[in-house]
Amino acid sequence: MTLGDARFVDLYQRYYRHVYAYCRRRTAADKVEDAVAETFLVVWRKIGEVPPGDEALPWLYSVAHRVLGHQWRGASRQSRLESKLASVGVSVAVSAEDYVVVDQESRQALDALSKLRRSDQEVLRLSVWEELPHREIAEVMGLTTDAVKKRFSRARKKLAQELNRMEKGHSKSPAVQKGGAW
Amino acid sequence: MITEDRGLTMLAGANPVPQLDFIDVDIEASKYLATLEQRSSEMTQLETKPAKDDTKRRPVGVWVAVAATVIVILGLGVVLINQDQQDVALSPEETSLATATGFLEALWAFDVEGVTSYLADDAELSALGWGGEDWQFILRLQEAQKYQRQIGTCALTSSSSVRRTVECTYTFHAFGSDELGLGPYTGSWMEVVVLDGEVRGAGESSHFEFDREFSPQMWQPFGAWITDTYPNDVAVMYANGVQTTAMNTSYSGLERLSEESTALWAERVTEYIAINSD
């Protein structure tokens, strides 16, 4: 086993669950395995570029972020095709497994989150769900730490505004997390 | 009333995978690695395996002809190959520099499509005063104000495995300063953050040289002229009245962003140049 192979095995064993959870939090159940496999394929190909120590995890997240981005863009293209098909009378099946149904309060939070800009959503998720500090969020998203601070501040304010708006009954959209809505 | 902290708590509670232990996965890294390596090896063989049976049947004359052809092609192609290698062999740092300069050239040519082609989906341009779609408005406004920027030197100021920051100095003309025999103005630079070949962020800065020259020579006289000649236009063209300085701004705080404002800026700047260049 080469040094690179040994490093890969170490990263895989140490962070597989982290990457899996990252992907599962952002995409549908049936797309997670592919996203995780693709992420580790990139890791294997670029093993020499993986930073040492704790910096490896934000790097892995940044790869997964990009993989999911491709997946999401692919889904968008598919969605446009589906819209076209629907307009000519071809129905498109949506699996119930595409959705994660959660309790009422969580539904509200996810619904409010979905109203934010995509990049702001990601800042909040990385902070609240992955529990990354701003510096590491900046690494994942390719932003400056100052930009992350500003976005985080803006996003948490906007999240609260959306939640309050929903409390007042202005929002009645369905509370679901759909695959690809990252 | 839901506070910001309460909102974050609710979001934390909505985490679809609250604990990693819940993930029931079979972590067999060695097996995964072996599969990857086997596939890679198979792909390499597919790409490089020679057709042995065919070579045995080929007469020597054919090999001589092939060799001669290859030599001629190589001889003719040396220059092209060398040129191509410059593109193929770009280091990540050079690629980031090329991306950043390409982005800035498109930006300063007011090429919306070109700029968009460099931007990541979630690019952060707020440091330019460009939030959301506003950057397109800003481009149109700066075109109306006859901004012309000339790139100076670019250098990598920070580099990590995932992100590279490129800083480019530039000089500029604006409000027709070139036609009035003033400028170009120095002391400004742009920072561009590149990740995976896409522009993820950009910010603009300037220091005292900018304020020392551009503001007294162009910004303030133009503002004074507008105030005197077209006082009713001030509210259309400026967001908060004519400012005395252009320093430390990201533009969006000074000019009003609207179609009407942009059209008026184009008209007034043209008129200002015509009057003052006589």
What does this structure look like?
The complex is a heterodimer of chains A (182) and B (278). Chain A is an all-alpha fold and 182 residues long. Chain A folds into two domains: 95 residues, RNA polymerase sigma factor, region 2, helix turn helix motif (Rna Polymerase Sigma Factor, Chain: A, Orthogonal Bundle), CATH 1.10.1740; 84 residues, Arc Repressor Mutant, subunit A, CATH 1.10.10. Chain A is 68% helix and 0% strand. Chain A contains seven helices and no strands. The longest helix of chain A has 32 residues. By secondary structure, chain B is α+β, with helices and mostly antiparallel strands. Chain B has a domain of 183 residues: Roll (Nuclear Transport Factor 2, Chain: A), CATH 3.10.450. Chain B contains ten helices and five strands; from the N terminus they run H-H-H-H-H-H-E-H-E-E-E-E-H-H-H. In chain B, strands 1-5-4-3-2 form a five-stranded mixed beta sheet. In chain B, helix 5 runs antiparallel to helix 6 and helix 7 packs parallel to helix 10. The N and C termini of chain B lie far apart (64 Å). The chains are: A mainly alpha (182), B alpha+beta (278). The interface between A and B is large, with 60 and 45 residues.
Report strand order across the widest sheet of chain B: 1-5-4-3-2
Oligomer: heterodimer
Q: Find the structural class of chain A using helix and strand composition.
A: mainly alpha
What gross morphology of chain A would you assign? elongated
Gyration radius of chain B (Cα, Å) is 29 Å
Total strand segments of chain B: 5
Helix/strand-derived category of chain B reads alpha+beta
CATH topology of the largest domain in chain A: Rna Polymerase Sigma Factor, Chain: A
CATH topology of the domain at 94-276 in chain B: Nuclear Transport Factor 2, Chain: A
The poorly predicted ranges of chain A are 76-101, 171-182
Query: Strand portion of chain A, in percent?
Result: under 5%
The CATH architecture of the domain at 94-276 in chain B can be named as: Roll
**Helix run count of chain A:** 7
Radius of gyration of chain A: 18 Å
Q: Which pair of protein chains has the largest interface, and what are the residue counts?
A: A-B, 60 and 45 residues
List low-pLDDT spans of chain B. 43-89, 246-252
What proportion of the residues of chain B is helical, as a percent range? Answer: 40-55%
Order of helices and strands of chain A: HHHHHHH
